Amino acid sequence: MRGMLWLVTLEDESGAELESVRSVEDGALRSAQQGGDRYPRLSEIDPYGTTVLSKLQIASTTPELRHLLDDTQDEEEAHWLVEVLRLMEKASSRVHTFVRFRGDRTRERAYAAAWG
What we know:
Layout: E1 7-12, E2 17-22, H1 27-34, E3 50-53, H2 55-71, H3 75-93, E4 97-102, H4 105-115
Helix pairs in contact: 2-3
């Protein structure tokens, strides 16, 4: 079964997208969200909505993302995590930039329609 898709963007302070990377699958990030004790910052990323990380939040989330990359067996997911880390490093080195995680809005709408 196909998992959720993620869109992760590097944005400036006005919300303009500077770069983005889309996931193919979400197994790595999904497993991190289920392992809240091991990945407390990653488990706070909303799988169905939008989560914006500031420079300070990126600093505390990056080590968890690196650890998740080390644990990831799937080559495509590992490549995606490397790209997310690249965006986070860019945001950390620039002023007034943020990283936005956009979860799977399609599932959110389907859930609301079924249970709404």
